[in-house]
C-alpha cells in the first residue's frame, strides 16, 4: 500500500502568509597535594567572553599540512557518478536548504559512512532577508559546529532591551519607559546576537563543504512525490524530484532513501505527503518587516527596542550587524475574517509612513530598504513530527520526519523561528547518524518527535501571548476605562521570558536518553534534560583556559564528564580510579562494549575528567590510562581529556555548577549538548544500564 503521495510535480512553492519583494539590485607531574577549595562567591555575570574557543585537534594520524578545518575528503563521495546526478539509493534525503535542513546536513556531513543528500528548489544559496535573531543557546550550538567565533565577529550583540510608550502628557509622542539587560548574568557564556539568516546558512555550507563528505546542496530540485511502503516498515521511501535547472527543467528523478526529512518550510510538501496539517489560530493581524538604512534622531536606534504608540500601533527595532542597518517590525491593520495579507497591497512606502507615525516626535528618514516583507501572525503546530504509528509498542520506527517551520510556525518578533528550527535539526541529526551507523537502537528515532513537539508547543503558547500583547493598544492611564495592555505589563512579560527566548529553558522529559533525577543533588547546576551549561576550566596538560562545553564538537559522540571527588585522583584508591577501572574492563564497560573494534576508544563515548586540585598539583601521567588514551594510526596519547578549575577567582566550575565536592559526580551529556544523566562516581552498573537502554553493540 502506498500512502502520502503528492500527485502533482508542479506543486506551488512559496511561504505561507509571506509576500516578499526582492529589489532587483539586491537579489539575492607529582607535588604535595593541596586541594584548594574556593570560598569565593560563585561569580555569575561573566559572560563577557567565553574562555577562548574550543581548541582543535589534528595530526592524529600523521602530519598533514594545510587548513585543519578542512577534513580529508572521503574517496567514496562521488561514487563514480557524473557531476549533477543523484545516486539511486541513499541513506538520508533532506528536503530544504533553510536553517533546519542545513543544521541537519552539517551534522550528517561528518559521517562518510552515511550517504546524505540535501535538495533545494531555489537556484542557489540565500543572500538576504528572513530571520536574524540568534539566541544564546544557538550560539552554544554553533561552538559545536566550530563557527560561533565567526558569528560573533560579524553580528550585532544584544546587550539591552529598551521600552518606549506613549507620553502621558502628550499621547501623540513616545517616551522611553525603561532599559533592561537583555541576557541575565550567568545565563550563558555566549551572547544573544543578530545576524542575517543568510550568513548562518553560509557558515553551515562551509562546515558541510569542509567535511569528509564534501556535502553540497542540490539546488534547483523540488520534491514532488513521496511513496512510503507501509506494508514493509524496513523498506526505503521512494522520492520523486523535479529538476528546475535550465536544460533539465521538468525532468523527474526518482531515488530511494532510508530516511526523508522535510525541512521544507511552512508550506512543506513532505508534511502534506504525510497527510499532516498545521493546526492553530488563524492569522488576523498583519505585520510588516523591513531592513533599512536610515537617518534618525531616535536615541535608542542601536538598541533592541519595543515601541507602543498611543494610536499608530507598535513597532520593534532590531539593530543589525555592520553598525548602520536596522530592522523594523511594524504593526499593520487587523485582517478581517478570511482576509489575506496580500490583499492589503502593502508597499514599502506604506511601511515607512507607518514607522514614521509610530516614531513621532522623532524623525525617520529612510535611505534604502534592502529587504522587506509582510506577513500574518499565526501560531500553528503539527500533531506529529514523524510518520511512526502513535503506539510505541508497535515497534515501528519512523522513516519520514518534518522539522522547523514545516511543523511549527509562529510570529517572528520573539526571534524564535530560526533558533527553534535549528535545534530541531540538531536534535534529529545525531539520532539519525547513531542509528544509521548501527550505534543506537532504532527506537531512539521516536524521541525526536516527542522531544521537539513538546518544545514547539511551549513556544507557540509563549508566542500567542506575546503577539496578543504586542498587538493590543497601550492602556491610557488618564482613562481607567480604556482597554489594552499596560506598557509595564508588556515589559514585565518580556523581561520574565528572556530566559525562554535565550533558548536555555528547554528541558526534555525522562526517556531512554534522559535519566530520572535520582542523583540530581550531586550536580544541581546540570539539571537532567537541560543543556550542558558550560563553565570555564583549565586544561591539565597545557594550562590552557577554556570553556568545558566548547571542547565538544558536533560529531555524534556522547560525553561522560567525571567530576572528581575531593580525594587525590592520582591515588589508585580514589573513586576516579575505581570508575576508570570499570570503564576499562573489556567485559563490563559500556565504553568498551559500544566502541567498534579498531576504533579509537573515545569514538562513541568520550570520557573526560574535571579535578578539584590546582592544575600545578596534578600529574597527567599519574591518571588512569583511559584519561590519556592512545589513539589513531600512530597510537598517540590524547592529552586533552583532563581539566582543573579555572584560575580566576569566583570561576570554579564545582561552585558554579553545584557539584558535590565530597562525592563528585558523573554527568552524561548527549551529542546535542543536553544533560542525559547525573550519577554518583560509584554507580558503574547504573551507568552501564543507561547506555544499554539506547546503544547497540557493534556486530
Ligand atoms: C519570507 C520569510 C520572512 C521571514 N521573516 C522572518 C523574520 O523577519 N524574523 C524571523 O525571526 N523569522 C522570519 N522568518 C521565519 C524564519 O526564516 C524561519 O522560522 C526559519 O527560516 C525556519 O527555517 P526552516 O529551515 O524550517 O524553513 P525555511 O527557512 O522556510 O526553509 C525551507 C526551505 O525549503 C525549500 N523548499 C520548500 N519546499 C520545497 C520542495 N518541495 N522541494 C525542495 N525545496 C523546498 C524552500 O525553498 C526553503 O529554502 C521568515 C520566513 C520567511 C519565509
Provide a descriptive summary of the structure in words.
This protein has 699 residues and is α+β, with helices and mostly antiparallel strands. It has 14 helices and 30 strands. The strands form 6 sheets. The chain has an 8-stranded mixed beta sheet with strand order 2-18-14-17-16-15-7-8, sandwiched between helices. It is globular and about 75 Å long. The structure holds flavin-adenine dinucleotide. Flavin-adenine dinucleotide binds next to β2, α1, β10 and α7. The site of flavin-adenine dinucleotide (FAD) has 35 residues, from β2, α1, β10 and α7.
Keywords:
eight-stranded mixed beta sheet; single chain; binds flavin-adenine dinucleotide; disordered N terminus; seven-stranded mixed beta sheet; 699 residues; alpha+beta
Largest sheet entry: 8 strands, mixed
Report the β-strand fraction as a percent range.
15-25%
Please work out how many helical segments DSSP would assign.
14
Name the average pLDDT.
88
Instruction: Categorize the overall geometry.
Output: globular
In order across it, which strands form the biggest sheet?
Answer: 2-18-14-17-16-15-7-8
Amino acid at each position: 500500500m502506498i500512502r502520502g503521495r503528492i500527485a502533482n510535480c508542479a506543486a506551488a512553492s512559496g511561504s505561507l502568509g509571506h509576500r516578499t519583494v526582492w529589489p532587483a539590485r539586491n537579489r539575492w607531574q607529582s607535588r604535595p597535594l593541596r586541594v584548594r577549595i574556593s570560598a569565593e562567591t560563585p561569580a555569575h555575570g561573566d559572560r563577557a567572553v567565553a574562555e577562548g574557543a574550543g581548541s582543535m585537534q589534528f595530526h592524529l594520524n600523521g602530519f598533514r599540512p594545510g587548513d585543519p578545518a578542512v577534513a580529508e575528503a572521503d574517496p567514496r563521495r562521488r561514487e563514480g557518478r557524473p557531476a549533477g546526478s543523484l545516486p539511486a539509493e541513499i541513506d538520508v534525503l533532506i528536503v530544504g536548504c533553510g536553517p533546519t535542513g542545513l543544521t541537519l546536513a552539517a551534522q550528517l556531513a561528518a559521517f562518510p559512512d552515511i550517504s546524505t543528500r540535501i535538495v533545494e528548489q531555489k537556484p542557489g544559496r540565500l543572500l538576504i532577508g528572513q530571520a536574524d535573531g540568534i539566541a544564546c543557546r544557538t550560539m552554544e550550538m554553533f561552538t559545536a559546529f566550530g563557527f560561533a567565533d565567526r558569528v560573533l565577529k560579524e553580528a550585532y550583540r544584544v546587550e539591552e532591551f529598551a521600552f518606549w510608550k506613549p507620553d502621558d502628557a502628550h499621547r501623540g509622542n513616545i517616551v522611553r519607559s525603561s532599559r533592561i539587560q537583555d541576557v541575565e548574568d550567568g545565563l550563558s557564556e555566549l551572547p544573544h546576537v543578530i545576524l542575517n539568516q543568510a550568513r548562518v546558512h553560509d557558515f553551515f555550507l562551509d562546515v558541510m563543504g569542509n567535511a569528509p563528505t564534501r556535502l553540497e546542496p542540490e539546488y534547483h530540485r523540488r520534491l514532488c512525490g513521496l511513496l512510503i511502503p507501509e506494508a514493509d516498515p524496513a523498506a526505503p521511501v521512494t522520492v520523486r524530484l523535479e529538476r528546475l535547472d535550465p536544460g533539465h527543467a521538468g525532468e523527474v528523478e526518482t531515488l530511494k532513501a532510508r530516511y526523508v526529512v522535510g525541512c521544507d518550510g511552512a508550506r512543506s510538501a513532505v508534511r502534506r505527503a504525510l497527510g499532516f496539517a498545521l493546526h492553530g489560530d488563524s492569522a488576523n493581524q498583519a505585520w510588516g518587516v523591513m531592513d533599512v538604512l536610515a537617518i534618525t534622531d531616535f536615541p535608542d536606534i542601536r538598541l533592541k527596542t519595543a515601541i507602543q504608540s498611543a494610536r499608530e500601533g507598535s513597532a520593534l527595532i532590531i539593530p543589525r550587524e555592520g553598525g548602520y542597518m536596522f530592522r523594523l517590525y511594524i504593526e499593520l491593520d487587523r485582517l478581517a475574517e478570511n482576509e489575506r495579507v496580500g490583499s492589503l497591497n502593502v508597499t514599502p512606502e506604506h511601511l515607512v509612513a507607518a514607522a514614521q507615525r509610530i516614531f513621532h516626535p522623532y524623525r525617520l528618514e529612510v535611505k534604502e530598504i534592502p529587504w522587506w516583507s509582510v506577513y500574518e501572525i499565526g501560531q500553528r503546530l503539527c500533531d506529529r513530527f514523524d510518520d511512526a504509528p502513535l503506539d510505541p509498542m508497535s515497534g515501528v520506527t519512523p522513516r519520514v520526519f518534518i522539522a522547523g517551520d514545516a511543523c511549527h510556525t509562529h510570529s517572528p518578533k520573539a526571534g524564535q523561528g530560526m533558533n527553534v528550527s535549528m535545534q530541531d535539526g540538531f536534535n534529529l541529526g545525531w539520532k539519525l547518524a547513531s542509528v544509521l551507523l548501527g550505534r543506537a537502537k532504532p527506537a531512539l528515532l521516536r524521541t525526536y518527535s516527542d522531544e521537539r513537539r513538546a518544545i514547539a508547543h511551549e513556544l507557540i503558547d509563549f508566542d500567542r501571548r506575546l503577539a496578543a500583547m504586542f498587538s493590543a493598544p497601550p492602556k491610557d492611564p488618564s482613562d481607567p476605562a480604556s482597554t489594552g495592555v499596560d506598557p509595564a505589563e508588556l515589559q514585565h512579560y518580556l523581561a520574565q521570558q528572556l530566559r525562554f527566548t535565550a533558548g536555555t529553558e528547554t528541558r526534555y522529559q525522562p526517556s531512554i536518553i534522559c535519566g530520572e533525577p535520582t542523583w540530581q543533588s550531586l550536580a544541581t547546576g546540570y539539571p537532567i534534560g537541560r543543556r550542558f551549561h558550560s563553565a570555564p576550566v583549565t586544561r591539565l596538560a597545557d594550562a590552557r583556559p577554556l570553556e568545558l562545553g566548547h571542547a565538544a564538537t558536533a560529531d555524534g559522540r556522547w560525553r561522560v564528564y567525571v567530576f572528581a571527588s575531593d580525594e587525590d585522583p592520582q591515588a589508585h584508591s580514589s573513586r576516579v580510579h575505581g570508575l576508570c577501572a570499570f570503564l576499562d574492563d573489556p567485559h563490563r564497560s559500556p565504553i568498551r562494549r559500544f566502541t567498534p573494534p579498531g576504533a579509537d576508544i573515545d569514538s562513541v563515548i568520550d570520557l573526560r575528567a574535571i579535578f578539584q586540585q590546582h592544575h600545578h598539583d596534578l600529574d597527567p601521567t599519574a591518571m588512569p590510562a583511559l584519561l590519556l588514551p592512545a589513539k589513531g594510526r600512530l597510537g598517540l596519547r590524547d592529552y586533552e581529556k583532563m581539566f582543573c578549575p579555572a584560575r580566576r577567582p569566583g570561576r570554579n566550575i564545582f561552585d558554579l555548577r553545584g557539584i558535590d565536592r565530597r562525592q563528585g559526580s558523573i554527568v552524561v551529556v548527549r551529542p546535542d549538548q543536553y544533560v542525559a544523566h547525573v550519577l554518583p562516581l560509584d554507580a558503574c552498573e547504573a551507568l552501564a544500564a543507561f547506555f544499554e537502554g539506547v546503544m547497540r553493540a557493534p556486530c
